[in-house]
Design a protein that fits this description.
- With 320 residues, the chain is an alpha+beta fold.
- It is built from 10 helices and 14 strands.
- The chain has a 7-stranded antiparallel β-sheet. Strands 3-5-4 form a 3-stranded antiparallel β-sheet, covered by helices on one side.
- Strand 11 and strand 12 form a beta hairpin.
- Helix 5 packs antiparallel against helix 6.
- The termini are far apart.
- About 5% of the residues have low confidence.
- The chain binds adenosine monophosphate and magnesium ion.
Length: 320
């Protein structure tokens, strides 16, 4: 055999070997992609689902969220918020202080529609929803007069929070889940996790992508068991608020758990459901609740303050 023929055979063989090794390398990649696991846990009265390839990371995220529940829950007498509601002055953790500071800013931006001192009103309306009966007008008026987020005083240097008036009661139900999701995501990022989905009863964060594809998140129809729209998201948060979560109906009128602090009565803005997509879940959660109170026109005006945020607002007319 001539030298040229030998070298042709060698080159052809080398090409085949290279092709086979590229093929087996890419097959190896597919095989190496570890499967996703989904685990659920009851946190803040909600089933929280975490989907991730790393079980240890899932457990770390759950314990961060449980820690936030222990700080903020009004159903736990030992939480910082319960202690503040009881004693009017506490030394608080940095996390609680930062969250309350943000809540006060949101109260200003929403011109009072978002107010974490809505506690006296949410207590009255929680009972009303349970009993399916309207509360006395006088008790609503009395409770409404106690609502004032600016009556929360923060001393960041001494790490103290105090309430300016007796009877002020904080209820962080509108943002606690979103905040807990953000804290868990921060922990996952610190652990080097680049792909995960946390769903805390509709307060969702999509970390990275699932393999090479964005996470697919469906928006529920507020009145029917179907999906209105499916969003394709990566590194974005989403939260939905609406009048369909907790409510009762009396003489054809729906009374829900989202309260308009200006009237003392459940929000009656014509908005049925709001889905907010933001960079963080706290912002999404807070704005979703706020827009239910503000209504479509004022809600859209508020959105201009948050250029990176999108809102999908469904009104009563949209459902007709
Ligand atoms: P969400 O489901 O995130 O819209 O939050 C609803 C919860 O937020 C209620 O169950 C109350 O605990 C609380 N809440 C109700 N109305 C308001 C309001 N106007 N501002 C802040 N929190 C509120
Ligand atoms: Mg909310």
């Amino acid at each position: 055999m001539k030298n040229t023929q030998v070298s042709k055979i060698i080159r052809a063989t080398a090409k085949i070997i290279l092709a086979i090794s590229i093929l087996s390398l890419s097959q190896g990649c597919v095989q190496k992609q570890s499967p996703y696991h989904t685990e659920s846990n009851l946190i803040m009265g909600t089933v929280v689902e975490i989907t991730c390839q790393d079980r240890q990371a899932i457990h770390a995220a759950f314990s961060e969220m449980e820690h936030i529940e222990r700080l903020l829950s009004i159903y736990d007498a030992t939480s910082e918020i319960s202690q503040l509601n009881k004693k009017r002055k506490i030394t608080a953790s940095w996390k609680t202080i930062q969250l309350i500071k943000k809540s006060k800013t949101l109260n200003t931006l929403t011109r009072g529609a978002f107010d974490i001192t809505v506690g006296p009103l949410t207590q009255i309306w929680k009972k009303a929803i349970e009993e399916e009966a309207l509360p006395h007008k006088s008790s609503v008026k009395k409770a409404k007069n106690l609502v004032n987020a600016q009556g929360i005083e923060i001393n960041e240097i001494l790490m103290k929070i105090s309430l300016s008036k007796s009877g002020i009661q904080l209820d962080l139900g509108a943002i606690a889940k979103g905040f807990a999701v953000d804290v868990a995501i921060k922990k996952l990022r610190e652990l080097g996790i680049t792909s995960c989905l946390i769903n805390a009863g509709g307060d969702i964060y999509c970390l990275g992508k699932k393999y090479d594809t964005n996470w697919q998140v469906g928006i529920k129809h507020p009145r029917a068991q179907k999906t209105v729209k499916t969003l394709s998201l990566a590194n974005r948060a989403i939260a939905t608020s609406g009048d369909y979560e907790q409510f009762f109906t009396l003489q054809g009128k729906r009374y829900s758990h989202i309260i308009d602090p200006h009237t003392g009565y459940p929000a009656d803005s014509g908005v049925v459901s709001v889905t907010v997509i933001a960079d963080d879940c706290l912002t999404a959660d807070a704005l979703a609740t706020s827009i239910v109170v503000l209504g479509k026109t004022e809600g859209e005006a508020l959105m201009k303050e948050f250029p990176e945020v999108e809102a999908i607002i469904i009104t009563k007319e949209d459902l007709d």
